[in-house]
Amino acid sequence: MSGTEKPLPPMTAETRPFWDGCRAGELRYQYCRACDRVQFYPRSICARCGRSALEWRRSNGTGTVYAFTVVYRPPSAAFAADVPYAIALVDLDEGFRMMTNVIDCDPEAVAIGDRVRVVFERRADTVLPHFTPVHPHTPKERG
What we know:
Layout: H1 16-23, E1 28-32, E2 37-39, E3 54-58, E4 62-71, E5 85-92, E6 97-102, E7 115-123, E8 126-133
Antiparallel strand pairs: 1-2, 1-3, 4-5, 4-7, 5-6, 7-8
């Protein structure tokens, strides 16, 4: 990989259903039938009860920004054209949290509590989930 290629997340046996879902335009997460809990990131056993009674479910793809930061200094040359951009922790309506980018908006307009929905970006053979505001606004609207 050259210094101008963005890194891609690895695909493992545990994460393959998640990445297959992204390719199909679905945001998937795990649900434990044994303890009635959801989890994300994908694992081979439940992080709460330790059982393997996991099933994959489809998220409706909407959630709320829990926390975020705006990146002004690219971590490598591959991200130089993207700055500034927003990275956020999003609480999905199904009860799990994931780290993601908030795109298709002014990154300085992103705010805690914003409602967002999933969108997908194809990069090489991988499809990545990102989020976009349900109701975009500008920094001036924040007052």
